[in-house]
Amino acid sequence: LLNTTDKVLDMDSGSLWTPARAQKPLVGSNLLLAVEMLARSLCPQDQPFSFVLPNVQLQTQLLGPTSPADYRVSFPTQPPLRAWIPRHSLAPLSRNGTNVSITSLVLQKLDHLLPSNYGPGLGDSLSVTPGLVLVISITAGGQVFNQGEVIMDFGDTDGSPHCVFWDHDLFQGKGGWSDAGCRVQAASASPTTQCICQHLTAFSILMSGHTVPQNPTLELLSQMGLGASILALLMCLGVYR
Hints:
Structural class: alpha+beta
Helix content: 25-40%
Radius of gyration: 22 Å
Largest sheet: 9 strands, antiparallel
Distance between the termini: 75 Å
Number of strands: 14
Low-confidence stretches: none
């Protein structure tokens, strides 16, 4: 299934995927849902394993039952993607000597296969993702857990990004991006942006599709205009005084 998914993500979206999506609008969301279900069903019992393809990367990790440490994972994508789950979110899962299994899966080029549906407060079709979707699944004692704090770093981003996940229930079941339970924070001592979410699902980050190029002349004019405005306000205050 992962090999097939890798091939599907490499397909020419214009000639093959667009007609399929026109006939069945749910096909992109259903593909993501199938991959999420696969990630939840993987539960290595003896040793962790990994799976690397051009568009699909998967890593599993086993944590011991005694006070598991922070879970950290990184993927050599473009931009690089890192994620970690704090110890306090994993500690309640390892009761009664239960091992904790965590599966992390990254899909590339998925953004052009999903419909351009955005939940409240996320703007419009001008927003884009970097083409990376992260799926994390936690299994302990044969049970899948959907809640837990996860911190993600999608690399350097421009503009005002939004941390989002794919909500399969939005738009009458067609699915769409939502930022419920997620927030953005600047990484300490780093120019990157971190996403913090309180649930486990398919994550990504939304950015403005068009960045404003930096122009020293425009910046100088802006600073001069701001300076003149402040000076005028001070003169106005002085007159009133």
